[in-house]
Write a structure and sequence with these properties.
7% helix, mainly beta, elongated
Length: 128
């Protein structure tokens, strides 16, 4: 079993479906080179395989990470880096290209308190 993300013209994930595994070539119709091409034809959208076990550019079961993160609806597929990236939570946040997650420009406080990001002040506000 494999998962496939379907993208609009801006490479935004519109849906994720379960399909046949890329290695199960006996099930692939011979006129197609791979399942991404096959599902793209069936659904009518660009298709990219995604790994259910990949998060923050690590494979959760110790395998090889695949495309940065498991795709979700609203994620963007970055063609240059061949990764899926979550929607940007705030304009000021920057992508960490080692784990393909968004990070605040100010580190999260290292204590046991709860905080919310304040975009206006570009700081973490203590939740009281």
């Amino acid at each position: 079993m494999a998962h496939y993300a379907f993208l609009d013209e801006n490479n935004i994930v519109q849906k994720v479906l379960v399909g046949l595994d890329e290695n199960n070539l006996s099930e692939l119709p011979e006129e197609f080179e791979n399942f991404e091409e096959y599902y793209s034809t069936i659904i009518g959208m660009k298709c990219k395989r995604t790994s259910y076990n990949t998060s923050e550019n690590q494979h959760l079961l110790g395998g090889t990470a695949y495309r940065g993160n498991f795709a979700g609806v609203g994620f963007t597929y970055d063609e240059v880096n061949d990764v899926f990236v979550q929607p940007k939570p705030y304009d000021s946040w920057i992508i960490n290209e080692s784990n393909w997650t968004w990070e605040a420009p100010v580190a999260f406080p290292n204590d046991d308190n709860g905080y919310n990001w304040n975009e206006e002040t570009q700081s973490w506000d203590l939740v009281e």
